[in-house]
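For the sake of transparency, this paper describes our internal protein records without simplification. The record that follows is passed on verbatim for readers who wish to inspect the format:
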Amino acid sequence: MANGQLSHELEVNVPASEAWDLFGTLRLAKLVEEQCSSLVQKIDLVEGDGGVGTVFDLKFVPGTLGVTRYKEKYTKIDNEARIKEAEAVEGGYLDLGFSHYLVRFEIIEKANDSCIIKTTIEYQVKEEAAANASLVSIEPLANIVLLAQKQLTKPKA
């Protein structure tokens, strides 16, 4: 079994609580579906209300990620520490020999009016599929964080 981890950090000039209002809720999935059409074809809410146990079916534009769809489940939402984790539960990377694929968003307070959005991918891939580890990329998530930054810092109407 081979383990791996990729991460990305971006400082955003909004309070951590404001960033968490986007990342800690269903709003992020809606924003990604509406604004990331070059990556995501559709995000279906399969079950849940945005809390732990919520399941999404994500369908990606072919050729963008190495996978075309997978289901993910929110396995941790910590409103105090501002951490949300989503784990692949069906399809996608699991079909390519991964035994574990997790995405974590952390909103880290830096000052009253700024925070760091840290994104981490953790994965485990079976030895016989180790070459597929090269399919994992932090770039799509980094682009989602940039999209969120634009949304969070645009002037209020």
